[in-house]
């Protein structure tokens, strides 16, 4: 298949590009700064020659969006919103104007669309969307608005010959440098990977291998459209999540951090505490119902596999 990945130069794009290319597909990446073969320039906002790559392709997986690992200033929040909505809209325009449109358009969304909650897991059918939770910082609602508008941009696109799926993905865990697993591992190995603000908030995650398998599954299944949760079936409280990660690295100590220490740490890392403190309890209702099985369903075993691969990678480097 010819698979086009707008925004495919980042963490998730690298995982998909690597796996889909290895599986024998022709992968083309749209980027604002092409540096190698199979990369085509676009601006993520306006139609241009790049749209020719989409015409005649089989699959589009749009991942473009300003990184969420930043301070949530007004300017950054606006850039996070615009880059997602604009890129989804223009990908829709390219598909709509193609003479041979792709069969399926997988549009990245996020598990962050669901409410901050502890009591019950969120699946697609019964889950609560976020934005109105009491006692959470006001700007958390903005992240939910970003996700809603992002999905809406895809829904509104008039692409009658192309199936549309929104990927409500949890944190994708891979051993690659600079990804979320790498950052959390670094904290765990420094002895800083303890509970944050009590650690009761849930962490949803998905192993990179299962993420790729789920994407392949959704490409193949012609009966699937709309939002789909891409998360392992067993999200767990942050304190248990970090305990298992420490165990996988053989790091016995994990200093706890209070909310204000998390604020300080997030500030130092130029990141935001929402990423640490929001309880994301998201489960893959539709995938499980459709018979999809996870090779890495439990975090302790998934963490062991990721640590083994990270160690192997470091040795070979
Ligand atoms: N990583 C996760 O675990 C995870 C989980 C759920 C959802 N997501 C979402 O999935 C998408 C991909 O995640 P990722 O971790 O691979 O993100 P990433 O590493 O930040 O990569 C995103 C890509 O988007 C492009 N981009 C950035 N700003 C842009 C802009 N203003 N206009 C157009 N393109 C822009 C960049 O490509 P160029 O600079 O090459 O143009 C970049 O490579 C993101 O939207 C993210 O929010 C990620």
TrEMBL record:
Q: Where is the NAD-dependent epimerase/dehydratase domain?
A: 3-223
Domain DUF1731, chain residue ranges per copy: 272-306
The similarity annotation says: Belongs to the NAD(P)-dependent epimerase/dehydratase family. SDR39U1 subfamily.
- The domain of life for this entry's organism is Bacteria
Q: Which Pfam families match?
A: DUF1731, Epimerase
InterPro entries, per this entry?
DUF1731, Epimerase_deHydtase, NAD(P)-bd_dom_sf, SDR39U1
Renumbered to this chain, the signal peptide range is none
Write down what this protein is called. Answer: TIGR01777 family protein
List all membrane-crossing ranges: none
């Amino acid at each position: 298949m010819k698979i086009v990945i707008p925004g495919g130069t980042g963490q998730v794009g690298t995982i998909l590009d690597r796996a889909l290319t290895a599986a024998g597909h022709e992968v083309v990446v749209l980027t604002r700064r092409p540096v190698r073969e199979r990369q085509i320039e676009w601006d993520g906002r306006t139609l241009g020659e790049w749209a020719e790559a989409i015409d005649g392709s089989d699959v589009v997986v749009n991942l473009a969006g300003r990184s969420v690992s930043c301070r949530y200033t007004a300017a950054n929040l606006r850039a996070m919103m615009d880059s997602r909505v604009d890129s989804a809209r223009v990908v829709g325009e390219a598909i709509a104007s193609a003479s041979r449109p792709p069969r399926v358009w997988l549009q990245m969304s996020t598990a962050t669309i669901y409410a901050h909650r502890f009591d019950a897991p969120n699946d697609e059918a019964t889950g609560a969307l976020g934005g109105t939770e009491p006692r959470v910082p006001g700007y958390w609602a903005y992240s939910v608005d970003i996700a809603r508008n992002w999905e809406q941009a895809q829904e509104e696109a008039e692409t009658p010959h192309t199936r549309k799926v929104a990927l409500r993905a949890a944190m994708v865990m891979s051993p690659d440098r600079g990804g979320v697993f790498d950052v959390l591992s670094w904290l765990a190995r420094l002895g800083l990977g303890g509970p944050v603000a009590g650690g009761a908030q849930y962490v949803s995650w998905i192993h990179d291998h299962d993420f790729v398998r789920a994407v392949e599954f959704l490409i193949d299944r012609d009966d699937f459209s709309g939002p789909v949760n891409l998360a392992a079936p067993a999200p767990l409280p942050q304190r248990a999540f970090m305990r298992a990660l420490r165990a996988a690295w053989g790091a016995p100590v994990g200093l706890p951090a209070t909310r204000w220490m998390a604020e300080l740490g997030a500030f130092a890392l130029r990141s935001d505490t929402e990423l640490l403190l929001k309880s994301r309890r998201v489960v893959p209702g539709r995938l499980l119902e459709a018979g999809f099985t996870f090779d890495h369903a439990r975090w302790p075993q998934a963490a062991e596999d990721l640590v083994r691969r990270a160690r192997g990678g470091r040795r070979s480097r």
